[in-house]
């Protein structure tokens, strides 16, 4: 069992799921967001700070032996926002980890938008295929993965870089039948990441056992994670509710879908 597990972005959709379901993993759960975390439970601590505030982030990371880093910008946005949250924020978090009296193990919520420009006909293996980010957000996640790798090689800080697909109760579009990740599968993955004796610094996709999946996680098989859910059970409902995209539309061509045709957001 961990002593202190930090969950960043704890007021977001994935962060609050972690708050609800990871309590058993640590004696104390330290929750972080900029606001909106309500009242701390008996084994919870709340730390409000912006990820771009270096000294606050370093103080927050001190003493945590596990970090689930869900915080930051989770969609495309203006560079100023992406940079503060996902570039400066990541650096501050890893500097906190490096300086901490306890070396943490880290779950980094990367994104499949690191490889969004790959065609939907390509099966990707993160140990073999190059990144092809589909926007500034995707670029920032590529940076995060590189940073995590450097802190592992130089300082031995272990991170699982999980390229999360689409974690919603149900896939809201046909594209997401391929990228869908159920909440149960995500929680099991986090549990495995903090349980294996040696983690190293794997890069893998956070995706359920979908018939339509594009991604091959065999290089991370040693984690012992076996996703159980399959988006196929939602297909007929989705077909009844939505017209699938045409073959020449971005949502049917690229793994990143409409992120690929989104422009640069001006500030
Ligand atoms: C992401 O990275 C986003 O955080 C999420 O909101 C979805 O848009 C997801 O990608 C996706 O592409 O389905």
Give the structure's gist in a few sentences:
The chain has 267 residues and is an alpha/beta fold. It has helices at residues 13-21, 54-61, 79-99, 136-155, 176-179, 183-193, 235-241, 250-253; strands at residues 2-8, 26-33, 44-48, 66-69, 105-111, 159-164, 203-206. The structure holds D-galactaro-1,5-lactone.
Task: Please render the helix and strand layout as text.
Layout (H helix, E strand, L loop, with lengths): L1 E7 L4 H9 L4 E8 L10 E5 L5 H8 L4 E4 L9 H21 L5 E7 L24 H20 L3 E6 L11 H4 L3 H11 L9 E4 L28 H7 L8 H4 L14
Helix pairs in contact: 2-3, 3-4
Bound molecules: D-galactaro-1,5-lactone (15L).
GO molecular function: oxidoreductase activity
Family: Belongs to the NAD(P)-dependent epimerase/dehydratase family.
Keywords: NAD, Oxidoreductase
Description:
This protein has a seven-stranded parallel β-sheet, sandwiched between helices. The protein has one domain: NAD(P)-binding Rossmann-like Domain (Rossmann fold, 3-Layer(aba) Sandwich), CATH 3.40.50. The protein is α/β, with parallel strands linked by helices. It has eight helices and seven strands, in the order βαββαβαβαβααβαα. It binds D-galactaro-1,5-lactone (15L). D-galactaro-1,5-lactone binds next to helix 5. Residues 6-168 form the NAD-dependent epimerase/dehydratase domain.
């Amino acid at each position: 069992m961990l002593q202190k597990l930090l969950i960043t972005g704890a007021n977001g959709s994935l962060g609050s799921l972690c708050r609800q379901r990871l309590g058993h993993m640590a004696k104390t759960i330290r929750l972080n967001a900029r606001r909106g975390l309500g009242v701390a439970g008996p084994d919870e601590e709340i730390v409000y700070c912006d990820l771009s505030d270096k000294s606050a982030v370093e103080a927050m990371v001190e003493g945590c032996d596990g970090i689930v880093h869900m915080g930051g910008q989770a969609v495309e946005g203006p560079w100023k926002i992406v940079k503060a949250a996902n570039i400066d924020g990541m650096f501050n978090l890893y500097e906190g980890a490096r300086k901490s009296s306890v070396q943490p193990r880290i779950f980094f919520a990367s994104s499949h938008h690191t490889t969004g420009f790959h065609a939907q006909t390509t099966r990707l293996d993160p140990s073999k295929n190059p990144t092809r980010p589909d926007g500034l957000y995707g670029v920032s996640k590529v940076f995060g993965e590189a940073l995590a790798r450097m802190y592992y090689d130089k300082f031995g800080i272990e991170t699982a870089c999980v390229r999360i697909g689409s974690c919603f109760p149900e896939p809201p579009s046909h594209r997401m039948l391929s990228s869908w990740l159920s909440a149960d599968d995500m929680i099991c993955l986090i549990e495995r990441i903090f349980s294996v004796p040696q983690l190293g610094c794997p890069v893998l996709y956070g995706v359920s056992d979908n018939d339509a999946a594009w991604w091959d996680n065999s290089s991370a098989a040693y984690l012992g994670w076996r996703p159980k859910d399959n988006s196929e059970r939602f297909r007929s409902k989705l077909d009844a509710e939505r017209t699938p995209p045409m073959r020449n539309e971005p949502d049917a061509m690229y793994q990143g879908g409409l992120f690929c045709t989104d422009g640069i957001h001006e500030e």
